[in-house]
Amino acid sequence: MKKHNFSAGPSILNQKVFKESSNAVLELDDIGLSLLEISHRSPEFVAIMNEARELSLKLSGLSSDEYTTLFLQGGASMQFLMIAYNFLKTRGGYINSGTWSTKAIKEAKLFGDVSEYASSKDKNFNYIPKDYSISDNPDYLHITTNNTIFGTQYHKLPDCNCPLFADMSSDIFCRKQDYSKFSLIYAGAQKNLGPAGTTMVIIKESLMNKICREVPSMLNYKVHFEKDSMFNTPPVFAIYTCLLSMRWLKNNGGLAEIEKKNISKSSLLYDEIDNNEMFTGFASKDDRSIMNVTFNLIDEKYKSAFDVLLKEQNISGINGHRSVGGYRASIYNAMEIESIEVLVDTMKKFKKSI
Amino acid sequence: MKKHNFSAGPSILNQKVFKESSNAVLELDDIGLSLLEISHRSPEFVAIMNEARELSLKLSGLSSDEYTTLFLQGGASMQFLMIAYNFLKTRGGYINSGTWSTKAIKEAKLFGDVSEYASSKDKNFNYIPKDYSISDNPDYLHITTNNTIFGTQYHKLPDCNCPLFADMSSDIFCRKQDYSKFSLIYAGAQKNLGPAGTTMVIIKESLMNKICREVPSMLNYKVHFEKDSMFNTPPVFAIYTCLLSMRWLKNNGGLAEIEKKNISKSSLLYDEIDNNEMFTGFASKDDRSIMNVTFNLIDEKYKSAFDVLLKEQNISGINGHRSVGGYRASIYNAMEIESIEVLVDTMKKFKKSI
Predict the structure, then answer these.
(1) What is the rounded distance in angstroms from the CA atom of residue B90 to the CA atom of residue B111?
(2) Is A294:A330 a contact under the CB 8 Å cutoff?
(3) How far apart are CA B302 and CA A62, in angstroms?
(4) Which three-class secondary structure state does DSSP give residue A3?
């Protein structure tokens, strides 16, 4: 019986991606060697790296004359400090929309002044802050476009006159948008891209001239850029699997098609939440995420009964984060609508049973 | 026809490890989910992480009361800067035995004074420096126990009164030794441990109190230690594959047995180099590595002829690094003696053919 894995990350990938990446561990294409044992300087891996970097820009609709892609290590958490280390000269600007924004702000403070222009902490981050002004000329404005824990997502970008940086770990490539509004985008792979172990960074090449202090090599964007994202041995398997996911995305209509699919999936689930009197949505309606759907029972006393039904249907990874409680259905790109239908049916069945 | 892969890293792993790790990408044990899609907080992955950390200490003969193991990201290059960021208070002490030591020294200089007590640069790093004194009370002494590019290896450790730190990326777990002489050991996985994408750090817990400045979270050993090596999402696949390699090592007699095997393998090859008049060894005899065997042709004019024979035998990854030229046979733990025999036979055949 198929498992329906709603994990927030590491999370589901397309079954074809699992198969191809599993095969490559045995033998990459027909070269007689495992993907894991070839040099990262081999023509085979250099081709993988180049294709992954190019395809990321193609999917985003960005020009390779203006942007470059790096596959680094350390997750979004490493980007929190790298951004400030490289680019916080006078003041880093931040919007605080959740746990990960809060962590990004904490790391930035080690490198200089930080202006937090707005926060949704007053309502346990159930909305995206709006109506704020950016008055003190920050070196950059940093936002978290999708808040995995709280299930909120930016549907309109802030206006700012400075470079816009975004943590897109949990919503990269989930929809069409004008990626050229961003100067730097980063995403830990383990949601929409691939396995844990690499972080995709799409960055404007012109930013390389804005690095404002002496930065150790491994933390320096320019060092990685000048070495074509191979300053040292890259995480070969993780990058290859990201490439497989991006190929899958491209072959299925790119961001336009995946956006339609993601809206269908999330609408189906939000409709049930809004129409089923046993549940309430957590996130403010205007700011609902199409990737992470957070909802609570109207009364916690029903939890064990609902959990039994979920288990019967082989639904896993759906418990909410401790700071929100309830449930969180992470419905990333690779999730098929059939799994959402099973969840929605379970919710309906649960209502009837009460 | 079997390929004989002498790559310096990423490099060969045991075939059983490839098979098991490939299977886990399809389905981990019998849980109905891929290793890549389960939460790092799931009981399954927590058990993997715990076993990997414990087994690393068991193999080293170190007590878990005194030492802890972390699986971090960023390779040895990230450790170069983390070591200095955390522990270089007054002066970092370094022995320069090659390219990677040189890089470690470069990164350390960003954080304070560095004393380079000895270097073998005068002879293109073909030996391990000896006979030096450590006079100025460094915060630590850093060595590179095996120099992948030059094929040299420490067979006697330096005497010092300060904590001894070692980059063991290319010789971790290749031999029995008294690991308790070290306060910090690190190794990029992609030679003796697993795929590229994680770095094993074995560190004395008492060092956590010696962190000498405010260090960003992701670069702070204490942060990772306090979170049981799961401060943020770890590189799940790479760590699991390291565990498989360590299990394989343990099930085959641990470090005592692998040392015997590695000595047999390297002796066979060094004997041929010393007895075959077409070749000369690169590294000083006393300091020869049992992991990376570097040798040159007596005359470069023979290169294309020898390369043809190597290719016929399906020998790959054996070209020397550009700074040494000639050949480098990397014969890590997972390499079987049969591959060395094929290489030695090819060298004999080559001599006859001239």
Answers:
(1) 9
(2) no
(3) 49
(4) coil
CB burial string A184-218: b at 16+ within 10 A, e below = bbbbbbbbbbbbbbbbbbbbbeebbebbeeebbbb
For the stretch A205-235, pLDDT in tens is 999 999 999 999 999 999 999 999 999 999 9
Whole-model pTM? 0.98
pLDDT at A133: 94
Q: Which domains does chain B have, with CATH numbers?
A: 15-251 (3.40.640.10), 254-353 (3.90.1150.10)
Query: Which chain A residue has the Cα nearest residue B321?
Result: A41
Residues A22, B214: Cα–Cα separation, whole Å:
41
Is residue B93 within 8 angstroms of chain A, CB to CB? no
ipTM over 0.90: yes
Condensed to tens digits (0 to 9), the pLDDT of residues B56-114 reads: 999 999 999 999 999 999 999 999 999 999 999 999 999 999 999 999 999 999 999 99
- Listed in sequence order, the residues at least 6 apart from A291 whose beta carbon sits closer than 8 Å to its beta carbon are A146, A148, A153, A170, A171, A174, A191, A192, A262, A266, A330, A331, A332
Distance, CA of B87 to CA of B81 (rounded, Å): 10
Check pLDDT > 80 for residue A289. yes
Give the closest residue to A41 by CA, choosing from B194, B10, B149.
B10
Interface probe with B: pick from A7, A22, A33, A36, most Cβ of B within 10 Å: A36
- Does A74 touch chain B if contact means CB atoms closer than 8 Å? yes
